[in-house]
């Protein structure tokens, strides 16, 4: 991704995945999730604020679902009490998990057509689209790739 750097030891990022017996598709998605977690640490202040603002709009709208199981657990933990709802640490954990899951799904959607899951535990399609559009503004697809079909 042009203009972005992932900073690990000596400017590298190392990811280890247990792939024994796992489907190659699932391993690839796990790698994308790891990349999303690493990219979270690289967001600039404006991107970070935009992400928190987007999550705030979702919470205000009463959206209870999430992009994946980890983000759903973090969202539920954040909303579990008045004290945790005001916890900056809990908000950060939720924001990171939701960003990583959304980034992974964004790249996955560029890779091939995906099926959007529906139900109370899942992010509603319109809200998912908003997130994907936000991420695509920061990490635009390469020329010739489309995130969404030309006609909706």
Short structural description:
This protein is mostly helical. 56% of the residues lie in helices and 0% in strands.
Which terms would index this structure?
152 residues, mainly alpha, disordered N terminus
- Which residues form runs of ≥5 with pLDDT under 50? 1-5
Give the beta-strand count.
Answer: 0
The overall number of domains is 1
Mean pLDDT, nearest integer?
87
Name the overall outline.
globular
Helix content: 55-70%
| Secondary structure tally, helices | 6
Structural class: mainly alpha
Percent in strands: under 5%
| Elements, N to C (H/E) | HHHHHH
Q: Please give the radius of gyration in angstroms.
A: 16 Å
How far is the N terminus from the C terminus?
Answer: 27 Å
Largest sheet: none
Strand and helix map with partners:
Layout: H1 24-40, H2 45-60, H3 69-78, H4 82-85, H5 88-111, H6 125-138
Question: Mind explaining what this structure looks like?
Answer:
By secondary structure, this protein is mainly α. It has one domain (24-138). The chain has six helices and no strands. The protein has helices spanning 24-40, 45-60, 69-78, 82-85, 88-111, 125-138. Helix 1 (24-40) crosses helix 5 (88-111), helix 2 (45-60) packs antiparallel against helix 6 (125-138) and helix 5 packs across helix 6.
């Amino acid at each position: 991704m042009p203009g972005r750097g992932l900073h690990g030891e000596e400017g590298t990022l190392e990811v280890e995945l247990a792939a024994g017996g796992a489907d190659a598709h699932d391993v690839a998605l796990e790698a994308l999730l790891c990349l999303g977690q690493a990219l979270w640490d690289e967001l600039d202040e404006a991107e970070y604020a935009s992400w928190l603002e987007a999550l705030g709009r979702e919470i205000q709208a009463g959206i209870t679902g999430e992009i994946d199981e980890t983000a759903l657990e973090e969202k539920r933990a954040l909303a579990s009490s008045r004290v945790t709802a005001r916890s900056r640490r809990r908000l950060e954990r939720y924001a990171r998990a939701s960003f990583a899951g959304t980034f992974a799904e964004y790249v996955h959607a560029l890779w091939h057509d995906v099926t959007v899951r529906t139900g109370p535990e899942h992010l509603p399609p319109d809200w998912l689209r908003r997130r994907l559009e936000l991420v695509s503004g920061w990490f635009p697809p390469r020329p010739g790739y489309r995130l969404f079909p030309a006609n909706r």
